[in-house]
Specification:
The structure is a single chain. The protein has helices spanning 2-22, 27-42, 48-66, 73-98, 116-119; strands at residues 25-26, 45-46, 68-69, 107-108, 121-128, 131-138, 144-146, 149-151. The chain is an alpha/beta fold.
Length: 155
């Protein structure tokens, strides 16, 4: 257990603090850039090229997290939050890329029409073996009780 803690937590933090003395990415700046980029690319209008660009940014941002410079203990909290923000951004990108239509605030300039026949669905995203898997799941036009989750039809 101590070896695992050392390898997964203590050693990466030690290395990140060392980088802060010389080089490495500032977590606060990474967070500002991520928020700005996702605001520009994912807000309302999007197309396949914009989604591909956003996907590339998120992948590169994950690499930048590997060379993060931690200046203080709160930077570790910000780094965890930033990783979670990247996870959410990735889910939004993959779901938007899967949905080949426009609906509500999701407007695809390359698919401007609403398509109820094929897209009267919800999109569920799971992560298996490190990869995201977005899937369409049809829903009834009425509220559906799925145990702890209540689903509302979109549209």
């Amino acid at each position: 257990p101590n070896d695992v803690l050392e390898a997964l937590v203590v050693e990466p933090i030690r290395k990140a603090k060392e980088r802060a003395k010389s080089s490495g990415h500032d977590i606060r700046e990474l967070k500002r850039k991520l928020q700005k980029t996702m605001w520009e690319k994912l807000l309302v209008e999007k197309d396949a090229a914009i989604l591909a660009s956003a996907r590339e940014y998120v992948l590169a941002e994950r690499d930048r997290l590997e060379s993060l410079a931690l200046k203080d203990n709160f930077d570790l909290v910000l780094a965890i939050e930033h990783k979670n923000m990247l996870d959410v951004a990735e889910v939004i990108i993959e779901a938007a890329d899967l949905r080949k239509e426009s609906r509500g605030s999701h407007y695809r300039t390359d698919h401007p029409e609403r398509n109820d026949r094929e897209w009267g669905t919800n999109i569920f995203v799971t992560r298996r073996n490190g990869a995201l898997h977005p899937e369409k799941h049809s829903v009834d036009r009425e509220w559906t009780d799925r145990g702890k989750v209540r689903l509302s039809p979109w549209g």
